[in-house]
Design brief:
19% of the residues lie in helices and 45% in strands.
Length: 130
């Protein structure tokens, strides 16, 4: 009897751990920048970055990392896409002053993307303003 109760407890704990790990993995991704871009006033050089975000609703806090170091944070919004992205993609917007800003991040095989910045509330899945 004790063994059965202990086994059930271990099984429940393992299931909870796996569910938590799966959820945490869903809040991570990667991107490659071809050109320098600005994110929340921080200049990011061309290269490979990892991203993670915190939050449950459509509004999240994005962290962009180079290695284990956070190089930029920004408010972001999870947006639904009409179809899964074929690859990871960083969507860049050209600014009037000749600089570029990160506008969206798309993730391979996912039907959602992150719209970056405060203006992201008015964006749709195509990256254009509503």
């Amino acid at each position: 009897m004790k063994f059965a109760n202990t086994s059930k407890g271990l099984l429940l704990g393992l299931a909870l751990l796996l569910a938590t790990s799966a959820f945490a993995a869903a809040n991570k991704g990667s991107m490659q920048l071809q050109d320098p871009v600005t994110v929340s006033g921080k200049q990011l050089h061309a290269g490979d970055y990892s991203v993670k975000w915190d939050g449950n609703g459509p509004n999240v806090e994005l962290s962009i990392m180079k290695g284990n170091k956070v190089v930029a944070t920004a408010p972001a919004r999870l947006i639904d896409l009409n179809e899964k992205s074929n690859h990871d993609a960083a969507v860049v917007q050209n600014n009037g002053d000749g600089t570029k800003s990160l506008a969206e991040i798309h993730f391979s095989g996912k039907k959602y993307a992150l719209a970056i910045g405060n203006e992201s509330a008015g964006m749709d899945g195509s990256g254009s303003s509503k």
